[in-house]
Structure formats: C-alpha cells, structure tokens
Amino acid sequence: MYDSLGSLTSAFGVPGHEGEIRKAILSNGQFEYHEVDNFGNLYCHNKAGEGAPTVLLDAHMDEIGFIVKHIDADGMIYLNPMGGIDPRCMIGNRLMVRGSEDIVGIVCNTPPHLSTEGKVPDIGDLPLDTGLTKRELEEIIYIGAPVGFLGKLMRLSGTKVSSKGLDNRAGCLVLCELSKTLAANCNVTYLFSTQEEVGTRGVEVALKTMDPDLALCVDVTQGNMHFIKSPITRELGSGTIIGTGPNIHPKIFGSLVEHAKKENIPFSTKAYPKATPTNLRTIQLSGGGVPSGLLAIPLKYMHTPTEVIDINDITSTISLIRAFIDDVDDVIQEGFTFY
Q1: Counting beta carbons within 10 angstroms of the beta carbon of residue 242, is it exposed (0 to 12), middle (13 to 18) or buried (19 or more)?
Q2: How many CB atoms lie within 10 A of CB 199?
Q3: CA–CA distance from 141 to each of 11, 75, 130, 138, 249 (Å)?
Q4: What's the angle, vertex CA 273, arms to CA 267 and CA 274, rounded to 5?
Q5: Are 154 and 163 in contact (CB under 8 A)?
Q6: CA–CA separation, 242 and 218 (whole Å)
Q7: Which of 151, 300, 312, 320 reaches 20 to 30 Å from 338, CA-CA?
Q8: 24, 38, 40: which is closest to 195 by C-alpha?
Q9: Any idea what the Cα angle at residue 27 is, between residues 14 and 292, rounded to 5°?
Q10: What is the pLDDT of residue 115?
C-alpha cells in the first residue's frame, strides 16, 4: 500500500492538468474498463450485470497548485494559486513548472538580514527562481503554465507518512484498493474527478451523465495538530470519519455506523451543519437527488507540501466501504424516502 500511495502522490495533477495522475490510478487499480470525458474525469467500472444496483464511489484526483501569471525582466516567475494555499508554506520550497520541458524553481523571499517589513508576501508577490533568463523561459513555458509542488512520500514514525497531494490521493488509494477486492453484487463506478480544488467542477460535469442508486464520497478532513484540537478535527490513527448532516442521507450514515460497529472498524463521526467542503455538496444535488454518504481520512497540515496521514486510517476506510457494499442490496431495498 505504501508503494501505491507513493506512486499516486508523486504524480503531477493540479486542477485542469490531471493526465499524469490518471495514468497512475490506472496502474494501481484493477478495473474492467475505463473512460475519460471531455473534462478529464476518469470513470472506472466493475460490473455485476443488468438489474444490479449501481454504486458511485468518488474521490477527486486533483491537487492544489499554481498557474504562471507573469515573467519579469529578471526571469522571475510569478504565480496565482489554484486552491486555498497559505503563502507561508511556499517560501523555500521547490516547485515544478510544466512546459515543453519540466523546470524546477525555488520560491524565494528576502533574507531576514535584509528584510525591513517582517511580513509574509501574498502568493502573487513571491518570485519563483529557476536560474533561467526571461528569454530562456519564454522558449519553454507560457503564461498560464501549470505549476505544482515537488516531493516524494516519506515515512514518519509508526504508520504515519508525509507528502504533497495526500489531499486527495489518499482517497484515490482507497478506491484503487477497493477495486481489487469488492464483491460483485453491484455495479461500481469509481469516479476519479477533476478540479475539486477550484470548485467541485469535475464532479458536476460527471453527474450530468450518471444516475447512481447511491454514492459515497471519500476525501480527507482536518486532523488534530499540536496547536489545534477542536470539535472539527480528529486524531490521526483514530479510524475513518463518517460524516453526518444535511449533505448526507441519514439512512446511509446510519448504515455506515452500524457496519463499523459490527465489524469492529475504528471510526468517529463528524457533523457538517451545511454543505460539506467536498464533492458531496454537488453529488447530492444531481438529478432528482442522489442518496449520499461521506467518509473522510484525518490529515494534518492540509494544503501544504508536507501533509501527514496515518496509513491505518486508509485501511479502516477501505474496510468500512467493503462491509457496507457487501450489504448494499438491503440498504437500497429499504428505500431512501424520508416519509
């Protein structure tokens, strides 16, 4: 599992440029067939046959990144963010610019010996230094070129790991692993959606051509950090997190909790009082309404190049989805009306 996760996190895949991560997903899952739409969404299928219910499993595959907005006369590249990024995590880090060839640069800032302001610049004011001149750069990259963090998955203590892109390559790994073991009692579409980090755009396109009986969204959520422990964060290693609230169908929530208890799968619950900050906020509203559930993996230092998760929480999420889908016929036959 570690090697598969490393393959997924190292793949380039900022919003609108998910080609490399698509290939990595296909290399790490076992699917009967797949399709790619005009928006870059990857649909992978394992079929049970006609008359069987259809379950949608969604995990967005894009990662936070940047777009080139300007190259100045000194050859410094300036960027705009794609996704919510704190400029403090950028300074001193390596970024890769994708052009006719890949270029690595360093996000630089005025050394403290020379700084008089003492504040962190906005993202758009931080220069990226590649060592190339403006003329050399313009032969390789273009205004609007995609830019992403560099870095490989690394082991921390115990079962914890750190990398860029764990949001949401951890969710992608869950779906890839499930594709190898799920029972053939339902038709499963594994949707690896694009552009979630810039507004759940990929899944909105995908659901225009789909009508699943129910859907589960797999994403990450805020984990406890030494400087933040609050009602909305969860401890790494505590298991999968089952979402509840108006964005989640209560019968699916109840069934997930029931199966977690029955199978002794570590879990906690998390209340979302409004639309969740995931693809589920779009999935639920598709067509005549899709009965939906949310499973999340706790993650520290979200939207940085050094996100941290516990592998055991991925395992718990896989186990719960497998147990839930083993009994999915019963869940669907009970119906989803509120009356």
Answers
A1: buried
A2: 11
A3: 20, 12, 12, 6, 46
A4: 115
A5: yes
A6: 10
A7: 320
A8: 40
A9: 65
A10: 64
Alpha helices in 100-236 (DSSP H): 134-138, 166-178, 201-206
> Given CA atoms 129, 133, 138, 141 in this order, what sign does their dihedral have?
negative
CATH number for the region 2-63+164-333 comes to 3.40.630.10
Burial of 3 (0-12, 13-18, 19+ CB in 10 A): exposed
Q: Residue 178 and residue 111: Cα distance in Å, rounded?
A: 48
Q: Lowest-confidence range among 118-132, 185-199, 201-215, 249-263?
A: 118-132
Amino acid at 227: F
CA distance 54 to 215: 9
Give the pLDDT confidence of 305-326 residue by residue, as tens digits: 999 999 999 999 999 999 999 9
Residue 281 dihedral angles phi and psi, to the nearest 5°: -65, -25
How far apart CA 310 and CA 321 sit, in angstroms, is 18
In the CATH hierarchy, which fold is given to the domain comprising 65-149?
Elongation Factor Tu (Ef-tu); domain 3 (2.40.30)
Task: Please report, for residues 1, 2, 63, 149, 336, the alpha-carbon distance to residue 163 in angstroms, rounded to integers and kept in the order given.
Answer: 15, 12, 12, 10, 39
Contact 120, 88 (CB under 8 A): yes
Among the listed residues 296, 329, 327, 292, the one whose alpha carbon sits nearest the alpha carbon of residue 207: 292
Question: Are 79 and 130 a contacting pair, CB within 8 Å?
Answer: no
Q: Cis link prior to 168 (omega < 30° from 0)?
A: yes
Q: Domain locations in the chain?
A: 2-63+164-333, 65-149
C-alpha span between 100 and 103 (Å, rounded):
9
For the cut 70, the answer to whether the pLDDT of residue 118 exceeds it is: no
